[in-house]
Model the fold of this input.
Amino acid sequence: MDRTIEQKKEDNGNDLREAVKALTEPICAKFIRDDGTVMVGRQNPLLEQLETAIRGSGIGAGRSQAIASERSVLDAQALFEFQQIRDQLRGWLVDAEREIDGDICGSLQRWYVAWVVKRPAAKFYLSELRRWKTVITSVVDPPRQMDHPSPCPECGATVWLEELSKEERQRPLAIFYRENESIETANAKCRACGKKWTVLELAQELANSLVS
Ligand SMILES: [Zn+2]
Done:
């Protein structure tokens, strides 16, 4: 076989192994507390988190604040996504002449071991596993939001109009972040003028507005 093709196949195998690990191994994550301090902790594997979300317990801090009716909707979504993933994985295991069991992470790991033996084209599986990760993250770790007390450095607003209630609210600057991602990936938006920044850009803008 052509060396570059063989090399490429190997790379896909490594990517696939990483994609399996991303779903089945515990995650070392940074948490941002409500008071803004950051702590490092360990989270269960993503597939396990999705399964836990079905039962509506042990979800991230953002979820615990959700009202009961909202929580039951989210649980239905977790159940739906979990069933989709489990059905798909069951099909893959059948193709590999293996069976799924109650341990979803172990089942995916056993599928990977079977994949390594025959090494069918990795591309489809890789894109599916990455899609699963995105789907699960959106269920178990929706972006959290907090207000920033400063006026908007773009438009100077100190209040904004909430569309649904038509009520005027304080603190137009909102910051959106994920529990287990670095704060550098957070985004910010002014709810008065609509201007968007990364958190780092906003920090720079606010520092500039203090100077000028
Ligand atoms: Zn603004």
Summary: The helical segments are 3-24, 46-55, 61-64, 68-95, 104-118, 123-140, 199-211. Residues 144-211 form one domain.
